[in-house]
User: Fold this.
Amino acid sequence: MPQANLFSALRAAFPTDLKKIAVEAIEPDGQSLYYSWADLDHGSARIANLLVSLNLPEGSRIAVQVEKSVEAMMLYLATLRAGHVFLPLNTAYQAAEVEYFITNAEPAVVVCDPGSFGWVSKLAFNNGVGHVYTLGADRTGTLLERAAHHGDEQQPVPRASDDLAAILYTSGTTGRSKGAMLTHGNLLTNAAMLKVYWGWQEDDVLIHALPIFHVHGLFVAIHGALLNGSPMIWFAKFDPQAVMARFKDATVFMGVPTLYVRMLADARLDRDTAAHMRLFISGSAPMLIETFRAWKTRTGHTILERYGMSETIMLTSNPYAPDPRYGNEDERRGGTVGFPLPGVGVRIQGDDGKALPAGEIGNIEVQGPNVFKGYWRMPEKTAEEFTADGWFKTGDVGIQDDRGYFTIVGRSKDLIISGGYNVYPAEIEGFINDLAGVDESAVVGVPHPDFGEVGVAVIVPRKGAQVEGQKIIDTLKAQLANFKVPKRCYVVDSLPRNTMGKVQKKLLRDRYQKEFA
Ligand code: MLC
Ligand code: AMP
Assistant:
């Protein structure tokens, strides 16, 4: 098998002059910290050498729950270099959630924030993890201390394109998270194709303001910049004013719709603010047409919306330049997610598994070199999510128009997307139903002006029990990642059901539609 370590491809794209700035990291006090391309290379080599020195079995999982930092990105690159499997975890996850990932993925190494070392190391060591390191947002912790004893040169461990590079956990409709296994080949083909399709240019500068534990910030944004040898302006946390102030020094921005909504809320956003920018990209959640139009009016830029998933990385995109496959169409159409990316197959199927013609709504199924290898240690789940002829069932419902543009009109999976984070109602209902005094519950997504959609819980108490919505919310906040906690809880006598006894979530969604209007 040819050498296909993703890191080698990224490294080959670094500029010849390694002294040039690769990342300008904006520190919490607003000061900039500069990293050269050599710093990225040497820093990730030291960590990779540390990982290699541990003599871990091939394909060991390196689970990482740390605040965003350039060093955290180096840890990702180091994991690729060492030939291991990167397993990023949302920093909002609490003990019960982290314990599940550790027991399910059986990582060999866990890296956590110094502040959570106490509980994370206990969980990790109790579950057979051999090594726990810490890495703070301020570059403190044992990971870098240990790595400093290692050399700053490292030859990437040879990998085949089918070897695992990362596992991204994504929740399932049954409530339990599944680890989507992505290979070096999945990541590299997708990144190389996007480089061309989005017209990455020599003088591009990316503003990176997304978290780096999901596909969008970790792969689409980081690979995009590195594979083009382009510098990044790096924000640990999204701050609309601070980001807008740097548009004058950048050319590309990637965000979930909430980021665009928050920038539009600032009256200073205008054509001048965005004059230096080349491309604004949005994805991970549906963008309202109002947001798309307001951005165009205020900045003169037409946002390019694209669609992807943890299991597939990027699938479709509005065109950046004329796409000859679709009659040289180059219009970025609001409300649509554009065309299948080159090499990616996208089809719309009826519930009977038969192909539907353009103009009909059906299930979105996909195929291509970007599609993941399966769910970690869940062969039955993997089999269920693929059709007999090998297409992955996205769980999204869509339509293709006669010009070839795809639009996502809904989801067959019971999923809420809130500010770009996925929340699976079944998981939250499970927690609520276990609370004292609760008979049953239903969690549904309703429109929200900032997050696009948020979860609300509808709760039926046990006979004679007193249940208070706010207390439920407070209890959930102590157990679950904050973004999963329903923003409101309504206590009712019963849930609406159909004749089969199934809860009619649509009726609940309609009932609470306007709560955050
Ligand atoms: C924070 N909160 C959220 C939330 N983010 N609640 C619901 N949904 C969210 N997304 C909670 C906070 O914990 C807090 O709770 C309250 O809401 C207000 O928080 P905030 O201060 O306004 O939030 P902030 O820290 O500013 O974060 C908002 C955000 C962040 C939009 C910047 O959520 C974010 O970075 N989202 C991007 C997610 C992302 O990268 N998705 C890509 C997935 S990849 P309390 O109780 O303390 O008040 C993917 C594939 C693809 O989907 O196609 O790309
Ligand atoms: P995740 O599992 O976190 O990767 O989320 C993937 C899901 O996000 C997809 O299945 C879609 O439902 C949704 N998604 C991603 N991009 C878009 C988009 N541009 N418009 C609408 N939904 C999107």
About this structure: The chain has 15 helices and 25 strands. The chain has three domains: 6-237, 307-411, 416-512. The radius of gyration is 23 Å.
